[in-house]
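Provenance

Sequences were taken from public entries as deposited. Structures were produced by running a predictor on each sequence independently, with no templates supplied. The record for Cadherin domain-containing protein from Oreochromis aureus is shown for reference.
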Amino acid sequence: MDRRKVCIFMVLWAMVHLSSPGQGLRALRRTTGGRRGSGLTGQDANGVPLRRSKRGWMWNQFFLLEEYTGTDLQYVGKLHSDSDRGDGSVKYVLTGEGAGTLFKIDEKSGDIHATKRLDREEKAFYILHAKAVNRFTNEALEGESEFIIKIHDINDNEPRFTKDPYMARVPEMSDIGTSVIQVTAIDADDATYGNSAKVVYSILEGQPYFSVDPETGLIKTALPGMDREVKENYQVVIQAKDMAGQMGGLSGTTTVSITLSDVNDNPPRFTKTLYEFRVPESIELGSAVGVIRAMDADIGQNAEMDYRIIGSDGPGMFEITTNRSTQEGVILLRKPLDYERKRQYSLRVQVENVHINPRFYSKGPFRDEATIKIIVEDVDEPPVFERASYVMEVKEDAPKNTAIGSVSASDPDDKTASYTIDRRTDMDRVFNIHAGNGSVFILRELDREENAWHNITVIATEFTNPRQISRVPVYVRVLDVNDNPPTFANNYETFVCENAKANQVIRTVGATDPDAPLGGHRFFFSLAQEAAGKANFSVRDNKNNTASILTRRNSYSTLQKSVYHVPVVISDGEFPMQSSTNTLTIRVCTCDREGNMKACNAEALTARAGLSTGALVAILLCVIILLSEYSLPIIQCSCSCTTTKLYTVMGLWSKKELMM
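Predicted structure for Cadherin domain-containing protein:
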């Protein structure tokens, strides 16, 4: 087949395919009028007027089949100018997309050929420009014209799914027609031309459980009552075929993995109707007595269960809780067990699903019941004291071996117990206990003022098994007895002015008593009887546990007496009454008009400073030695670790210069 025949073939092919509207190919044809300066005019296939200057006829669109497999170059079309007289003076020039590489033009004839096999899916059209020029002068004979080469599609691409595989879930027991997942396949061919990209879906594997909509690719359930507990996973193979599914169309497949998700369509069931547990009576409160478990074919929250006790011959003895991680029922002890009192318990237990689906009520009831038998085993137990602690009281003047109380412990196994005192709590051995009857008595005299409470521990030991012991704290309170006399609250001392007036208060004193009477202290003050007849001072009881010391005359003289010792009797009001005589030292001093002390004589000073006669003599000797050596008018002397400042002028002592 020569080029002319190919050209004629392409022209005929284009005319056939362009005869139907909507193909987008436009042709120019020569007008019936003669050639004018305004150029050629014409119209396209849709009737739109077009103008071309000095041009014969041409297409402004060419169609070229993709994937050409012939041995010759693929003919595209032909350009021709009215100026071409066939003498070779006209040169055709082609520019634009692919010009010179994909498309070549015969510069003499205007024939265009494709040099390579083209793929519409890579590029659907090419825009080129053509013009005719004088071969010798290179002068343009025609204006540049644009045209398009469209690559015509053939069915060379199979449909491809967007995923492979697809993953989907659908609840078990779903109704027929329940949507599962939609698959999508894409065909790269031209969807606007023919059926090359018209895809139809079909199911190759997965029947009769599932179906697929041939147009949308929506997969639905096709079988009722699919049970996850019977089969959970399904592999469905879907085919997508182009050419509307006709014979000769290309196809692609994908796999859809469908999992049936669980619904609560199975009730819990105990594996046994009777459970039996053995537990020692010594088990601690809160401990697990046993574990039971009901089986549920469902999973996840659909298998969550609650256990509860619905009947028991030991109310409040046990409770049952649910272990959420294992869905087990854990039986816990809430009250102590005692083999000697009750050796067996019977419980009625119920299990029920937490999340019940109303849709499956007909498959219920979603609960089950079972009986639990708990057998209590005997354990050799230690003695048990009747009380958690004991408090005993004893007077502090109680004689030795006085019984102050008793403890008692019984052995649950009816065995004999003996009693001892834990000596680590009674290091001084103040108390003892009778080994047989638990009587506690004292071994030595007590003193409440020394120790008001004693905390000891008594041990009860099983006679036949010394390893079985119990302990109990015993708190002994020592009761007060009035066995201490009251005394001055402090080491009181005071002074009286030489110019003091009668009935003048010079000091207030208080008292203290280590005893602790229930009603509180009440002290009584008085002047000792032996001093009452020649008293220079009097004692006035203030009725508030204090007393005032008063002068009984208008003046005192240091020359007559510089220090007075006043005996004060203090007694309490308890039984037996206790009293003591306390001495108050009063020094006579020189005072100003306001009663402020100015000076006291040497005797008063030494007494106040607490110096003995020997100390005073030592100080005077130091003064004499210093005066003989230094003849200082003012001397400071320190002897025998006692410091006293004495001042002298011309060897004369002055009351005013002798100060404390």
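The chain has three helices and 46 strands.
The first strand starts at residue 40 and ends at 43.
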